[in-house]
Design brief:
heterodimer, A: Immunoglobulin-like, 7-stranded mixed beta sheet, 4-stranded antiparallel beta sheet, B: mainly beta, Immunoglobulin-like, 12 strands
Chain lengths: ~110, ~110
C-alpha cells in the first residue's frame, strides 16, 4: 500500500514568491496535517484538515493557507516567501480527526533564497 | 498546554551498548505520547506510542518506552544498539483536541562502531 506521498520533494524559491506543496494521504485516511520542520528543530504544527474542513491551526501567519480536496488530498500554500520559511514541510495523514496516530510523508524541502 | 522536553540533544553510544533517550512532557488532560525516528533526508517513522493501558510500551526495531505519570516522563530505551539506529529521535505529545502534536527538539543518536 502506498504511504503518504508529497510533491515536490525539493524546490528553490526566491523571497516574495509563492509556493504550493501537495500531499496525498494513505488510502482510507480522511485527515491531513501539515508541519514545518526547520533545520535542527522538531516539527511544528501548521494545519489540520478533516473532511475538507480546517480542524486546527498553529501559530503561523496568514501567508500560510491550506485546503483539502474531496479525495482527501491537500495543498499547503505559502505567499510572500521569507528566508525564514526555508524548511522541510511534512504532511501527515490519519484515519480521522482525533485517532492520535500520524503517518508522515518524506517531506518537501523548501529553500528560499 | 502541552509540551515536550528532550533533555539530551546528542547521545553518542558504542555499538551493542544500551541507550536511553529522555523525554519529559507537560499535559493538562489525557496523555497520548509518541516516539518517532527520522533518518537523514526522510520523514518521520513511528517507533511506538502510549495511548492507555500498560505503562511499558514496545515498539519496532527493539525499542521500548515506559510511561511514568508521577515523573511525567516517557523515556525511550534499547538494550543493544546497532549502527543502523543512528538517527534523530523525536518525542511528541498529542494535544487535547484534534491531531495536533507537540514535538520535542529531538535527540541525535550516534552509534559508534
Amino acid at each position: 500500500d502506498a504511504g503518504v506521498t508529497q510533491s515536490p520533494t525539493h524546490l528553490i524559491k526566491t523571497r516574495g514568491q509563492h509556493v504550493t506543496l501537495r500531499c496525498s494521504p494513505i488510502s482510507g485516511h480522511k485527515s491531513v496535517s501539515w508541519y514545518q520542520q526547520v533545520l535542527g528543530q522538531g516539527p511544528q504544527f501548521i494545519f489540520q484538515y478533516y473532511e475538507k474542513e480546517e480542524r486546527g491551526r498553529g501559530n503561523f501567519p496568514d501567508r500560510f493557507s491550506a485546503r483539502q480536496f474531496p479525495n482527501y488530498s491537500s495543498e499547503l500554500n505559502v505567499n510572500a516567501l521569507l528566508l525564514g520559511d526555508s524548511a522541510l514541510y511534512l504532511c501527515a495523514s490519519s484515519l480521522d480527526a482525533n485517532t492520535g496516530e500520524l503517518f508522515f510523508g518524506e517531506g518537501s524541502r523548501l529553500t528560499v533564497l | 498546554a502541552q509540551s515536550v522536553t528532550q533533555l539530551d540533544s546528542q547521545v553518542p553510544v558504542f555499538e551493542e551498548a544500551p541507550v536511553e533517550l529522555r523525554c519529559n512532557y507537560s499535559s493538562s488532560v489525557s496523555v497520548y505520547l509518541f516516539w518517532y525516528v527520522q533518518y537523514p533526508n526522510q520523514g518521520l517513522q513511528l517507533l511506538l506510542k502510549y495511548l492507555s493501558g500498560s505503562t511499558l510500551v514496545k515498539g519496532i526495531n527493539g525499542f521500548e518506552a515506559e510511561f511514568n505519570k508521577s515523573q511525567t516522563s516517557f523515556h525511550l530505551r534499547k538494550p543493544s544498539v546497532h549502527i543502523s539506529d543512528t538517527a534523530e529521535y523525536f518525542c511528541a505529545v498529542k494535544g487535547d483536541t484534534g491531531n495536533q502534536f507537540y514535538f520535542g527538539t529531538g535527540t541525535s543518536l550516534t552509534v559508534i562502531p
